[in-house]
């Protein structure tokens, strides 16, 4: 039961984080395209690309990390320990 609840909550968390990242990136794109100076716009575009990579890679990392923690099997015994 705990595994099912954790799976559902993880799915909801990942969807919410992805949507929040996308809304943030769209809002940033709208602001960046309205900058009149070409030099400032170029710097803002580079910052926006970096922000997008960090946000979306962080979301993917969190999703895989939580999935592994939820669905991983039991740890194997330490080498050299008793077999029974």
Topology:
Layout lengths: L1 H32 L4 H34 L13
Helix pairs in contact: 1-2
Short description:
The chain has 84 residues and is mainly alpha-helical. Helices cover 79% and strands 0% of the residues.
Explain how this protein is built.
The chain has 84 residues and is mainly α. It is 79% helix and 0% strand. The protein has helices at 2-33, 38-71. Helix 1 (2-33) packs antiparallel against helix 2 (38-71). The longest helix has 34 residues, at 38-71. It is elongated. It starts with a helix and ends in a 13-residue tail after the last helix. The model has no long low-confidence stretch (mean pLDDT 88).
The total count of strands amounts to 0
Q: Which spans have pLDDT < 50 for at least 5 consecutive residues?
A: none
- On the 0 to 100 scale, the average pLDDT is 88
Indicate the structural class: mainly alpha
Largest sheet report: none
* Spatial separation of the terminal alpha carbons: 29 Å
How would you sum up the global shape? elongated
Approximate strand percentage? under 5%
| Helix-strand pattern | HH
Highlighted features:
84 residues, mainly alpha, 79% helix
């Amino acid at each position: 039961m705990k595994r099912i609840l954790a799976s559902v909550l993880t799915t909801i968390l990942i969807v919410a984080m992805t949507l929040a990242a996308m809304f943030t990136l769209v809002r940033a794109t709208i602001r960046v395209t309205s900058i009149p100076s070409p030099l400032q716009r170029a710097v803002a575009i580079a910052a926006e690309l970096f922000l997008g990579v960090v946000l979306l890679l962080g979301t993917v990392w969190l999703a895989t990390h939580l999935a592994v923690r939820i669905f991983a099997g039991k740890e194997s015994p330490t080498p050299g320990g008793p077999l029974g």
